[in-house]
Amino acid sequence: MHAPLGDDYFNVMQSMLEREKEFTPVTASIVDRHVLAQGSKEKVIDNITRKDKEEKPDLVVVTPTCTSSILQEDLANFVTRASYSSKADVLLADVNHYRVNELQAADRTLEQIIKFYLDKEYQESNYSITKTKHPSINIIGGSTLGFHNQHDLVELKKIFAEIKIHLNLVVPENTKVTQIKDLPKAWLNIVPYRETGIQAAEYLLKNFQMPYVDTTPMGLQQTAKFLKEIQSILNGQGYECNFESYIKHQTSFVSQSAWFARSVDCHNLLGKKAVVFGDATHAANFAKILHYEMGIEVAWAGTYCKPDAEWFKAEVEDFCQRVIISDDYNLIATMIEESEPDAIFGTQMERHIGKRLNIPCGVISSPVHIQNFPLSYRPFLGYEGSNQIADLIYNSFTLGMEDHLLEIFGGHDTFQSNTSKIEYNNGVIWDEKARKELNKIPGFVRGGNGR
């Protein structure tokens, strides 16, 4: 990447958050004062050729940044010149960082890489593709630092193994660019997240007639719909299969969330009100789970993914009082404060808002902090994901008994008064030292009004 010093923080994030021992490092071609004064000259080309010799990669992707756009650097020219002296393929990510956000850039770049290698492999008009003997799928999407994406992919692989569908490729996870030519051999494509993978799936549908499923298997109802769509496509291609018994068994005996939704514990959530905000995939599907599976009122649902505004509205407008499309943090904070929900389900930013307003918040979408990169297995997709989501929903609400216990024991945090002396109704004045001693005694032990 051609960027200022500090923009290569990806390497630190990758090792700290995903905790991967082996990951693709980012090399920064630093924009310093010399570049600002004289231009990059040969600096970008030298960095590309140097990494080509050191790492011996199959592909080098050069990513523009806001800084390179401001400087109007001709990165396309640099890439062309570098490709003459590099053994690796050199590709410029075709994105304008002022017109698209990070998710759109990732989606476009993934499609660009896939298109580059497939066009090169199948440039002859009379090419032939042999499908795998047994039904197989490609999983397209899921990214490093994505919200629980690594756990989700493990859960999806488990489901496909159980229904005896082979995995052809998982792109981009652990797929070499030399394997991309095998993508068309699969029977269909799976796109678990709208944010990354849709453009690549559309390209494969248009050029290789590969159908795809973009229903996200989040929650019991959506997972059943997801499997039925796969079943329909496979039946249409001449492979007889029926996943009804698998769906019934998983819903009744493996996933606990269906049972939990009918339990007394979940009935305590009736009448509760929630708001949902996040990326389009997670926010829309989480709102559906709250409404259809848990019976919780969704006051409003929103997303910051403006390009998916129409899709998002169509998904949630039937049961949400309002639909919000905005990336304005302050507007979302105001909306939450006005709504006065019992719980928030959103990103790390909404968690901060909830802390300020004393409203519990469950994090369901990026952007997130390190605590949402758990060491334990915590998928959000599939049947195990439905258990995790049910736990998150239930634990995010402050229930009546908890309110009662907080009142009895004085809360989790001891309230510190700004005044040095406090006078109660009986006329007794407690100074700060006496108040600290009093707070050591639980309210129910004191008797009366707890004083």
Q: How would you characterize the overall build of this protein?
A:
The chain has 451 residues and is of the alpha/beta class. It is 45% helix and 13% strand. It is built from 20 helices and 15 strands. It has helices spanning 10-18, 33-38, 43-55, 66-70, 75-84, 102-121, 149-162, 198-208, 220-236, 244-254, 257-261, 264-267, 280-293, 309-316, 329-339, 348-357, 382-396, 400-409, 432-439, 443-446, and strands at residues 2-3, 29-30, 59-62, 89-92, 136-140, 166-171, 188-190, 212-213, 273-278, 297-303, 322-325, 343-346, 361-363, 421-423, 429-431. Strand 9, helix 13 and strand 10 (297-303) form a beta-alpha-beta unit. Helix 3 packs across helix 5 (75-84), helix 6 (102-121) runs parallel beside helix 8 and helix 15 (329-339) packs across helix 16 (348-357). Mean pLDDT is 87; it is low at 414-420.
Radius of gyration: 27 Å
Going across the biggest sheet, name each strand in turn. Answer: 11-10-9-12-13
Summing up helix and strand content along with how strands pair, one would put the structural category as alpha/beta
Main sheet: strands, sense, barrel: 5 strands, parallel
Estimate percent helicity: 40-55%
Average pLDDT rating: 87
User: Number of helix segments?
Assistant: 20
Please give the number of β-strands.
15
Distance linking N and C termini: 64 Å
> How much beta, percentage-wise?
5-15%
Low-confidence stretches: 414-420
**General form:** globular
